[in-house]
């Protein structure tokens, strides 16, 4: 197969999905390609007790109950709405679930202010309409409509960013499970096959969640994904994703455990500070999510690869961290500066090690940004 910058989950893990299907003896809802247990196993990884002769790595890190509730929802009559802070892995979980359940995670609509009803229903191929008139052949189904026709999962990213017209159209799709095409005289209803469902995601910082109409809310089960605060799982996520990114760049580099620790600790410190802040000005604009940690680490690694001696140093890490988190001047810069003086400096004096380099790099970065 030709190379893709980012292969969809069902392509990337095709081997694993084939294997799981081959050993799956449990009943499957509708046209699901795997049973609910196997879907869970694909997402959360295998354990010895599962008795498989192949290790399935964990791909999404978080409480198992979220994954189970999501799977149950998808077998029910309702859509699934994953809500959480930016970078908490909502889209990633949606993709994994769609890939495991129906081997297609690419039927996606992106919600924006410009999303229209056409994007979730259908539109027309204008030149065909001019030539041959409106017919099913000249109709272009949206990803959601394709999902209905195939009885698979459609995804709706950033639901709350779309307008209320679009949300209303979604209500009718989720309740009636068909779309009518009034432009056509016959063959003018597309019914959803069993197995059709929708996974939507919404960013809790977008504030739009409360503005969803109660009619729409009733048609979704909400699963709230919290920011991972458990350091061990967070370390695993960061390691897992970073390895993947590095493989993509064909870079071989070891992230020294002390540096990974420093990265995790600094985010933990900054989150504590944000939790104690009394106004938005005292709080970093960043949500300090795991995804941002991954971004910081990737940035530091690429920087040392391109412009440094290839080994990862604490100075570089600090510079990447400051660079990514200092979005507002002066507010964010002041918060980061306070952090360096109040927390990092005493720690560097006491523990030395990587924290000294981190302090140096941080100071240089702040000076350059100020
Ligand atoms: N719990 C997690 N398990 C595995 N990977 C995670 C987790 N949280 C975040 N990540 C990784 O962080 C990156 C960003 O995650 P993702 O895009 O899914 O976030 P999101 O919640 O959809 O954010 P947004 O609200 O900004 O769209 C992905 O590469 C994902 O793999
Ligand atoms: Mg997302």
How would you describe the overall organization of this protein?
The model has no long low-confidence stretch (mean pLDDT 91). The protein is of the alpha/beta class. The strands form 3 sheets. The chain has a 5-stranded parallel beta sheet. The protein has helices at 9-12, 14-23, 36-44, 64-75, 90-102, 117-120, 126-132, 143-150, 164-176, 214-218, 231-249, 257-276, 290-307, 314-325, 331-351, 354-369, and strands at 79-84, 108-110, 122-124, 139-141, 153-157, 178-180, 189-191, 197-203, 220-225. It is 52% helix and 11% strand. Strand 6 and strand 7 form a beta hairpin. Bound molecules: adenosine-5'-triphosphate (ATP) and magnesium ion. Magnesium ion (MG) binds at residues 90-91, 157, 201.
**Helical proportion?**
40-55%
Order of helices and strands: HHHHEHEHEHEHEHEEEHEHHHHHH
Discrete helix count? 16
Q: Which quaternary structure do these chains form?
A: single chain
Please report the total strand number as a whole number.
Answer: 9
Strand adjacency order, main sheet: 2-5-8-1-9
Mean pLDDT: 91
- Uncertain runs: none
Strand-residue proportion: 5-15%
Main β-sheet, in a few words?
5 strands, parallel
Shape: globular
Rg computed from alpha carbons, rounded to a whole number of angstroms: 24 Å
Category from helices, strands and their pairing:
alpha/beta
N-to-C CA distance: 48 Å
